[in-house]
Amino acid sequence: VNEYRSVLERAGSNFGPLDLELERILRGRDRRRRNQRIKAGALGLAVAVGAALVGANAIWSSSSTPGTETPTPTIAPSNEGLDYTIDLRTGEATPLPETITSIGGGSGGYQVSPDGQTMLFEVLDADSSLPQIHLANVDGSEIRPLTNEPAGAVAGSWSPDGQTIAYVAGWHETPNVTLRLVDLASGQVTELADELQSCFCEPGIIVDVRDFPKPSFGRDGRTILFTSGGFSLRTVPVTGGQNTELIDDAGWGSYAPDGSRIAYLNTLGFEARFRLWDYGGLIVTTAPTDMDGPIVKNADEHPAWSPDGTRIAYGWKNQVHVVDVATGDVTRVALGQRPAWLDDHTLIVERYQGPVA
Amino acid sequence: MSEIARFSVAGPDADVAASPTVQFEAFFEAEKDQLYRALCLVTRNRHEAEDLTQEAFIRVLERWDRVAEMEDSHGYLYRTAMNSFRRRYGRALRTAKRSMQLVPADDEIAEIDERDAAVRALAGLSPRQRAAVVLVDLLGFRSEEAARMLGIRASTLRMHASRAHAALKETMSRE
Q1: pTM to 2 decimals?
Q2: Which among B175, B127, B174, B119 has a CA at the least distance from the CA of B152?
Q3: Do B137 and A173 touch (CB under 8 A)?
């Protein structure tokens, strides 16, 4: 320990002195108090203004090389602020069924079952502000709750056979965020791992569920990929037991439909990059030493593979992009967030909820 | 009148010396440099470290009436600072933004890297590994306590520290 301490002390002595006076702390506290008061007053106003703004959605379409997208608005707003589907061949936008979008305090986090018949999604409870996962037919009929987690459930993901759903239960603090699996036939819930990546949000503040990485099933459905609280991608057998680190300094991982690749976000000096990693097998116990270069420089939210595995949709600053896996060509397709595939040509997009950078 | 001015004008009489603001000032003066150095090592960016130091002290000041009563206000300060670090780190990862875009590039650290092997050795560690060794080896927190600060299990923290030790050893032995 002394050896490491001396290395650290030596390293620390190189940095310049701190330029921070007590008065700045006092001013900072006063500023925060003032901002808190302003925020409280602005909340009600923001709700009203937000309702008006979501009607101003525009859907953009353009093609470009990675990292240099230039938007070209081509399609007029047509979804009236609802979450919607967009046909990538025609640009046609269609609102999701109102039975789904108008439930509770809001819905999102959609994912369609492998057979294309059923959709899972998060519903925010209007009173508790906690989300729970629900199921519905894709036409919006037969809505039913799937989870009833005391601390909420988010980030649902279908198994390849459509028999089970993995999700993230828990809130706020990393040690309490757990990976769970529910069997749809029996309703039995199994806890597979804890210490998952949390939302890094402040307790008591409305939670942005976009922060949670989704679990992802391997092709044979026997393992699940998840993002740990230590920001590494790990796998765990669906039968439970020891989980294994797959890639360090990585998160928001998603298996390709054929199981041959993983798309994920990683960080190089805090700049997240979206990479693909070929690992050529379902069970890997060592971290990779050689990765593909980043295929997208800027990415936010979970990468979503198209069912045919040729494209990946992802969000970036409230805009939805699709990248061609073979060429790396990026197309900006819509305003919105958290895209999910309805089929090989159609995306589900959550409505635009903020400014576009 | 600002609080600074108030106690400056009042002078060091007994009543003022016992006031919460004066207590906080003593705490601030005693802790600020060590916290800043620790955060410099974790973030490898002086501007980021200064921001986090300021943020941590502001948060502590907001709760000073309770923190002052704590047996371990020092630990609370570091928990607060590490929470802010985790939040920034996680958010930066999530949003793919480079949080340090908001502050100028730290050219001085690049220069230090060039001339000091110890700083260069730290550069090879991940932020989590740096945080683990700084909390445990430099600041002397128990691994359970350090793990709570970073929102991970003690076993995970020990794993990060162990990896960091191996990497540091290797880098330093090459120098």
Answers
A1: 0.58
A2: B127
A3: no
Spatial contact of A331 and A295, defined as CB atoms under 8 Å apart: no
* Cα distance between residue A26 and residue B4, in whole Å: 8
For residue B152, give the nearest of A1, A230, A252 by CB distance: A230
Per-residue pLDDT of chain A (357 residues; tens, 9 = 90+): 577 888 888 888 878 788 888 888 988 888 877 776 665 565 555 545 544 444 433 333 333 333 333 333 344 333 346 788 999 988 888 889 989 988 877 788 899 999 999 999 998 877 776 789 999 999 999 999 999 988 888 899 999 999 999 999 875 444 568 899 999 999 999 999 887 765 544 333 334 445 578 999 998 999 999 988 767 788 999 999 888 888 876 778 899 998 888 888 765 434 456 677 665 443 333 344 334 556 676 776 788 999 999 999 988 767 888 988 888 888 888 888 889 999 999 999 987 654 443
Inter-chain touch B96–A271, beta carbons under 8 Å? yes
ipTM of the predicted assembly exceeds 0.85:
no
- Which of A332, A256, A298, A301 lies closest to A110 in space, CA to CA? A301
Q: Do A230 and B86 touch (CB under 8 A)?
A: no
Q: Does A229 touch chain B (CB under 8 A)?
A: yes
Among B95, B119, B172, pick the best mutation site for testing chain A contact (most A Cβ within 10 A): B95
What are phi and psi for residue A160, nearest 5 degrees? -60, -30
CA A298 distance to own-chain centroid: 14
Q: Do B152 and A174 touch (CB under 8 A)?
A: yes
Which residue of chain A is at minimal alpha-carbon distance from B151? A174
